[in-house]
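#random but structural
TW: two for the price of one
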Amino acid sequence: MKKLFGVLTIVVSLLSAPVSAAGVVSGEIEYIRTQSFDKPASQKNLFWFTLKLDKAGSCKKWEGNGVLFFADDTAAYSMVLAAFTAGKSVAVHFDENQLRAGWCTALHVTLGNPPPLDY
């Protein structure tokens, strides 16, 4: 009976654990937009960018174009802007469970030639 209870406890805990849908994608930047003009001070560093990809998990595409990612770090903005200017690809680590206004959030941005697909 104790074994059955132990097995049931493990099964229930596995089923109740949130499913993390994290991933890493690499692509060329298509669009960048800052959001700071009319935002409160807590969102002054907010920006989004799209990668020329058909799919990144279940992350949404922007107006049928590339996959859109939000970020709010000035270092990430500098990296994305530099990669865009140089025409280089970036790797983006994201988690579909961490959204901003329904869009995926870029957790890490990595540059390289080519950028590595791990974090």
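TW: number two ↓
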Amino acid sequence: MNARLLPTMTLSLLFAACGPAPQDEGKEQKPAAVFENGSILIGSQRVELGAPADAWIAALGSNYRFADPELPIMMIWDELGIAAYTSPTKEHRINSVSFVLRVPPKSSGGYEHPGEGIQPRRTFSGAVSFLGTPVNKTTQVDDIPRLSKGVLEVHCSHGIALCSANRADQAKLDYSFHFTVDDQRYSSYIYKLNIEKDSAPD
């Protein structure tokens, strides 16, 4: 072997060894939103379910719209893929929030184009974790028991495209978790995750 090539080969091997290690494709990514104990951490901002709308605006920004300007009870953050439902009281408390993970199929009832009505312009980017269970746009309803390590079970309604998650041990929860699905029901992707505070005061 040409002796002059040895230093070059040695350097090449050294740089290859010091280069960044390949990413573990199976490594779980940190959820973009985490619901825990009545509050939701979205990015670096934390907001409580049941807090006034002003607190949500402070956390998510003022770039929102109402789904129906004549009936200002559903706030849409188009660029975040988030919808929040306000109470009709003076404080306009937000007791329910939805993360839109996928655009529903055009064949679904009440379909609206992204950016119109109740449909945000963009879908939520990343996973949403609730009760330690992360879901994203590739999660199917029947994945939830496994992802929750057996803590949760799911039930899908007949006749409407809606499923819910409950504790498998039947322990009472102060919050409801619903998923908008398609006609595949248990095998459906999760199009929208809704988290709602139960027995919310007026």
